[in-house]
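S1.2 Input.
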Amino acid sequence: MNNEPDNSLLEVLTDIRDNQQLQLERQAEALALQKEQLEIIRKQMERTEKIQDRAEQLQEKSAQIMNVARKVMIIVLPVIIVLVIYLSWLIFR
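S1.3 Output.
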């Protein structure tokens, strides 16, 4: 009779150990999955930063082009107006 409670206690302890081992394995799998997800997020952030840098470069080039276009329009628009006035004067003369 004394042997029976010892066996049942041994079985309970064995089950606890097995469950703890299973839990540790699952935690290791979860940790590995989290590491993979973290690496994916890092790669996405790097890609996003590259895209953002490229977008900033394009915006800077666009701003430069617009500045040049404004300067050209300041010169060209008065010339066109003068030519239209001259052409009108020639037609209606």
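S1.4 Remarks. Residues 24 and 30 are 10 Å apart (CA to CA).
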